[in-house]
Amino acid sequence: MPDSSNSISSFLKRAIWEKRRSTVMANTTELKLGKKLNEGKTKQIFELVDEPGHVLVQSKDQITAGNAVRKDQMEGKAAIANKTTSCVFKLLQDAGFKTAFVRQHSETAFVASRCEMIPIEWVCRRIATGSFLKRNPGVKEGYRFSPLKMEMFFKDDANNDPQWSEEQLLAAGFELAGLTIGRCEVDIMSKSTVAIFEVLEKAWATQDCTLVDMKIEFGVNVTTKEIVLADVIDNDSWRLWPAGDRSQQKDKQVYRDLKEVTPEAMQMVKRNFEWVAERVKLLLESQGKGRVIVLMGSTSDVAHCEKIRKACGSYGIPCHLRVTSAHKGPDETLRIKAEYEGDGIPTIFVAVAGRSNGLGPVMSGNTAYPVINCPPITPDWGAQDIWSSLRMPSGLGCSTVLSPEAAAQFAAQILGLNDHLVWVKLRASMLNTWISLKQADKKLQECSL
């Protein structure tokens, strides 16, 4: 007698599959495709008629190696690659990096800003392996680069993508979407590559997986004229070693290393790609969500505290405001403190008290959690009041930060040690500050000339 539960399970699976398929087909018909702008080994790019400045990036079920000397069809690869790319770009975009990614459209395609691509592959390496060893005889596999090793390769299939120097890139004088690729632009791409690698390295570490190396590409957004991270970042783009063990590698290198391509071997490659696609979704999840508790001595300090809360929000950190006075109600202060000590959530207290700051020292002496003093300094007695935050009795370790935005940043740096989603926002903010200074200097130099 047949197992009815198995029959029901098969029916449900089929129904779910049909629903997903119809949804994908419906999504595809929503977009009116224009001409095909480009086709590579693993994707096609189409103009979007109803979305000026946007394109559709459609993945293919093809896997290649050695500039397509080896190529095979791998059923389902387009969906796997698209899922991986979409998750990676969402992580980077949420952190604050400028990318071409707009949204995932279907299982196998995403919408992106239209870019003129800069024909350079930027390669960033943490561990020496692969082609680097062939080009640098004597270096042993596993050598760790600190700082990261940067390389660039000119995209030229006919000549096997030769390695280029910065000088060659500058001498080429590429002009794309009205932007000349000069020293400023090269430096921005170089700095961005390092920051992007560090962010993905930090994210993959949460899954006990070592990001060995990675290649990315940049383009010039035809609308904004900005350099943005473009193309795709999927399992063709990097080397991943779970637990730092090359024998467990999950990336395309497994396909490259095949002595013979058999159906069984291709299933193994596909399982590796699926493993990456499933775990890359976890990179979007916090591993240790923390919070900031701002204690103010008076409601007259609310405006100051709101600046702290707003800045915490920019890092994705929940921030709660409380009113208590360590001078006038120490028992209530300690009761409020106790509310946040027993639930296992990483917590940082920020003490906001003018005049004589009793909040910070009392909190620091009664909790093992970090305490930051952020007193609202006034022009009349500020120079005197600040000493109550700076001069602490022995055994107290609270720090003092005058700027409310800087106090939030300091809290984020502490919480970012155990929450990669906070850390990546800090890293992107560092990069964006550097880029804004670089562009300001370029503009000033052009004005001077």
Automatic annotation (TrEMBL):
Subunit structure: Homooctamer.
The keyword Ligase belongs to this UniProt entry's keyword annotation: yes
Organism domain of life: Eukaryota
Protein name: Multifunctional protein ADE2-like isoform X3
Pfam families xref list: AIRC (PF00731), SAICAR_synt (PF01259)
InterPro entries: PurE_classII, PurE_dom, SAICAR_synt/ADE2_N, SAICAR_synthetase, SAICAR_synthetase_CS
Residues annotated as domain PurE: 290-437
Protein keywords: ATP-binding, Decarboxylase, Ligase, Lyase, Multifunctional enzyme, Nucleotide-binding, Purine biosynthesis
Keyword Coiled coil (UniProt): no
Pathway(s): Purine metabolism; IMP biosynthesis via de novo pathway; 5-amino-1-(5-phospho-D-ribosyl)imidazole-4-carboxamide from 5-amino-1-(5-phospho-D-ribosyl)imidazole-4-carboxylate: step 1/2; Purine metabolism; IMP biosynthesis via de novo pathway; 5-amino-1-(5-phospho-D-ribosyl)imidazole-4-carboxylate from 5-amino-1-(5-phospho-D-ribosyl)imidazole (carboxylase route): step 1/1
Family membership noted in the UniProt record: In the N-terminal section; belongs to the SAICAR synthetase family.
Gene Ontology, cellular component aspect: cytosol
PANTHER family referenced in this protein's UniProt entry, alphabetically: BIFUNCTIONAL PHOSPHORIBOSYLAMINOIMIDAZOLE CARBOXYLASE_PHOSPHORIBOSYLAMINOIMIDAZOLE SUCCINOCARBOXAMIDE SYNTHETASE (PTHR43599:SF11), MULTIFUNCTIONAL PROTEIN ADE2 (PTHR43599)
Organism of derivation: Carassius auratus
HAMAP family (alphabetical): PurE_classII, SAICAR_synth
A molecular function (GO) term: ATP binding
